[in-house]
Amino acid sequence: MSNALLEVKNLTMQFGGLKAVDGLSFKVNKGELAGLIGPNGAGKTTVFNMLTGVYLPTMGSVHLEGLVLNGKKPFQISHLGLTRTFQNIRLFKGLSVIENVLIAGHQHVTYGLFNSFFLGPKFRAEENELFNSARELLKLFDLETKENEKAGSLPYGEQRKLEIVRALMTKPKVILLDEPAAGMNHSETHSLMDLIARIRTEFNLTVLLIEHDMKLVMGICENIIVLDHGCKIEEGNPGKIQNSKKVIEAYLGVDEDAAENGRAH
Amino acid sequence: MKFLKNPAISFSALMILGIVLDFGFNAYIQLTVLFVLVNCMMAMSLNLVNGYTGQFSLGHAGFMAIGAYFSAYASLNFPVLPGVLSILSFTIYAFIGGGLAALFGYIVGLPSLRLKGDYLAIVTLGFGEIIRVALQNLNFLGGARGISGIPSLPEIRLGGFVLDRFFVSYSFAIFWCLLCFFVIWRLMKSSHGRSFLSVREDEIAAEAMGINTTKTKVRAFVLSSFFAGVAGAMFAHFTNYISPSSFTFLMSVNAIIMVVLGGMGSMSGSVCAALFITILPEALRSLKDFTGVDLRMVIYSLSLILVMLLRPQGMFGEEEITDLWRRYVKRSS
Asked: Is residue B307 domain-resident?
């Protein structure tokens, strides 16, 4: 038995005639920080959507701790400990920062509707706990002074951070980050890298991230999976990926002169 | 303003208002006040679905009709406790009427709440019409003639002290309105309430954060239809006559106007809008004596348009009256 926490076997997604993802298999070990990269349109976000139950894969399966996730609804998958952030930020924009975080903690609430009408001791205790852990998380990300601001009014970088806080509030085992550094400047990206590394050890997390910022990916990921046109073309540590001819070709295209020369000789 | 937070004080204020209305005003004004309370409840309950959960329901009158017909039928055909205790029977019938409406809410909601936006609106609109047409064809419920002679709430004699019909009806309505207000207000301060809001804000994100959005929406729908059913029961006992034409599409639209005008997701807004929408057309009736032409509906609709132009988010937006007060205090200090 391997120690793979998240395992994807022969995952395929077909939209009509288009195979967005084709026979993808990979494993993410417990505690690992893995990266999923590839040129635009390679199918990375589609993979995330299949992992989290937004799309039902045409073929193949997803396993979390040996449990099959196919056919489960997104909220059930979240309950099992797989959570995500979104590429195009999807915060609850009209709600306050702390409400955003509290909502993610709802799945751990055990008091019923009636308890909330009568302010029972269970209600008070759980609400207190919820608020405390939400504030703790916000503090970790330096957002504690903004807890009553509307999420939509935060600056872009903080919205990205808030998405991560919200995802952490579900107490996940695996967190999928969809382009966490998109739109961030150099120093923001740098502090984000530290943060991701830190939350991984602090919360004992397994992280899978999609990112275009190669400095970030190469800097913190231990294992990198490269997708192109829905197929896995390479997998390995950053050193291996950087020197892989296939990866360079996928990103930069085939050097036609060299290819022709090759044929001519 | 802090004293308003004390429920005992606001409750006695409402009761004193009831006594003033009882002695100082005629039956027409009293009935209008009762309608205000019925509409308050319709608006507050619909606000739960349209305002807080962000689902567009157009069939609220259908649920109201179920509650109204049950309570009317039950009070005419089932035993009603004698004397003062008959209040208890009316309360129970209103409760069961609400429960029946909630059951229908569940049956309608479960399949249709998977739909979004306009589609949901059409399905709920269809449901409301189905109820109305069904009632028109059910002979034991009077068909198109409706049910007449529905008993009012009784007057209460305690020794030499008499509480007349209006005051009893008024207290009955206040009891249900406060209950409705209390339930929704408490709910929205709990984690369950926040999950309602998350569905309105972003369904996909809510699912990803572990919110069972279908269950959440059905819950909101069921709770909302319960109170609509109770509002219907109150309506039946206050008017003594109901027919399918009391619960047309227009009734649902009226409830929506109240929610939108007050502000989607504001309880204070729903209450104020219910007051405004119920009283304004009545208040404008006397205008005809001066102008000679009936400008009632013209002014009514113009004022709606004006409010929506000047405050597109509704009178209160998403805020409550307490939020406005807090900001006022902050600014003036």
From this structure: no
> What is the domain extent for residue B165?
2-247
Q: What is the ipTM of this complex?
A: 0.87
What residues does A28 pair with on adjacent strands? Answer: A6
Q: Look at residue B323 and tell me if it is in a domain.
A: no
What letters, b where the CB count within 10 A reaches 16 and e where it falls short, cover B79-90?
A: ebeeeeebbebb
State the pairing for strand pair A174-178/A82-84: parallel
CB contact under 8 Å between B198 and A74, yes or no, is: no
Check CB contact under 8 Å for B205 and A126. no
pLDDT tens for the 333 residues of chain B, in order? 455 566 777 778 888 887 787 777 888 888 999 999 999 999 999 999 999 999 989 999 999 999 999 999 999 988 888 777 888 899 999 999 999 999 999 999 888 888 877 888 899 999 999 999 999 999 888 888 889 888 888 888 777 777 788 888 998 999 999 999 989 988 998 999 999 999 999 999 999 999 999 999 999 999 999 999 999 999 999 999 999 999 998 899 999 999 998 988 889 899 999 998 898 888 888 777 777 777 778 888 888 888 888 888 888 888 888 888 888 888 877
Q: Is B213 among the domain residues?
A: yes
Residue in chain B nearest A99 by alpha carbon:
B194
Domains of chain A, CATH where assigned: 31-56+67-81+175-265 (3.40.50.300), 93-171 (no CATH)
Task: Give dist(CA B256, CA B262) in Å, integer.
Answer: 10
Report the CATH number that the domain containing residue B89 is assigned in CATH. 1.10.3470
Q: Chain B residue with minimal CA distance to A78?
A: B210
Residue B219 in contact with partner chain A when CB distance is under 8 A: yes
Tell me if B182 sits within 8 A of A80, measured CB to CB: no
Q: Establish if B303 belongs to a structural domain.
A: no
d(CA A131, CA A120): 17
In chain B, the number of structural domains is 1
List chain B residues with CB under 8 Å of A95. Answer: 194, 197-198, 201
Does A106 sit within 8 Å of B191, measured CB to CB? yes
